[in-house]
Amino acid sequence: MRIGAAVLRAADGPYTIETLELDGPGPGEVVVRIAGAGMCHTDLLGRAPGDFVPKPVILGHEGAGVVEALGPGVAGLAEGDPVVLSFDSCGSCANCRAALPGNCRDMAALNLAAVAADGRPRVTDGGGGAVHNRWFGQSSFATHALGTARNVVPVPRGLPLELLGPLGCGVQTGAASVLVSLGVRAGESIAVFGAGAVGLAAVMAARLAGAATIIAVDLHAPRLDLARELGATHVLDGACDDLAARVRAASGGEGVQYALDSTAVPEVVSAAVASLRTTGVCGLVGVGAPEYRLDASLLLMGRTVKGIIEGDAVPHTFIPKMIELWRRGRFPFDRLITTYPLAEIDQAEADAGQGRTIKPVLLP
Questions:
Q1: Residue among 99, 108, 42 nearest 262 (CA)
Q2: Is 316 exposed, middle or buried (0-12, 13-18, 19+ CB in 10 A)?
Q3: Which range marks the domain in which residue 291 is found?
């Protein structure tokens, strides 16, 4: 079938809007007509020098839309169903069976390689050249995406599908890190480092959990203002002197029970760990830093540092939960979104990178 897509042909080049040919769905596969696709910080891995992400490629891993075609063996979905696309997983390894699909044995191969498991190209351009299209099992910067029964999540009808894509990754990561992975409880304290889409979703989730102290840290004043509106009890400029001491002071002096870093900036991660009380836990969800250096004495005093992928969520249960909370007015993730036509993808990327937009959503 003929589709339109934003194609990245070089790490340092612009996206090009192209007409491509997409194969029909194979066994276990689903074609989704995309209504909207969020742009996530992880999509910037396509800009990494070298061949970390093969080119040309269609990126995008926060798609939402309507099922248009089903391959053999797909159960629980029908043509016309509204869906959100999330990350892919094998469903059979030990971690998937333990309800930790984000830690799937094949996580990197299924999500970061942008290549089908059988290696066969499924999208071709006008000259017959292959275009990689399995980024996070979807490649949703397009009019249509090819997903799997594992990463296509049915949602109720009658919702604004163009806004739901970010629930598949960034918003899910922030919210589930607080509610599932860290398990923040009523009366506890948390500091969130980075008030982008992931961080602000974490702030909203901390409010839902009943946290007594919610500290948001960022460099952009408008984002801190929004964090206050969404539930933060304290906000701090990330450029302030002795950030960890200021976080501890805001939490009453002892330090926070939980910290969540979405920046992947080594100095910020060090401050996040130093802001913890003894027995505190720091979750790391940021991507990009090659290494972190931590004060070993802090860890010896009972503090824990935990890597978190996709919030340790199971998308088929957590995405509907977020939607229901949103419908009740308790999880206003839509306040993070700015929409752009797919043709303006370069502008959306620039606005996000410069902090003008929190969560761009591209409309094909």
A1: 42
A2: middle
A3: 174-309
Pair (146, 20) in one structural domain: yes
Paired sense of beta strands 144-148 and 29-38, if any: antiparallel
Segment-wise mean pLDDT, segments of 10 residues, the chain, 364 residues: 97 97 94 98 90 93 98 96 97 97 96 84 93 96 96 97 98 98 98 98 98 97 97 97 96 96 96 97 89 89 95 98 98 98 98 94 98
CATH number at 197 reads 3.40.50.720
Q: Which of 259, 85, 287, 257 is nearest to 185 (CA)?
A: 257
CB 278 within 8 A of CB 303: yes
> Taking the model in full, what pTM does it have?
0.96
Q: Is 308 exposed, middle or buried (0-12, 13-18, 19+ CB in 10 A)?
A: buried
CA distances from 345 to 24, 196, 306 (A): 26, 18, 33
The DSSP-derived string for 121-149 is: --EE-TTS-B-B-BGGGT--SBSEEEEET
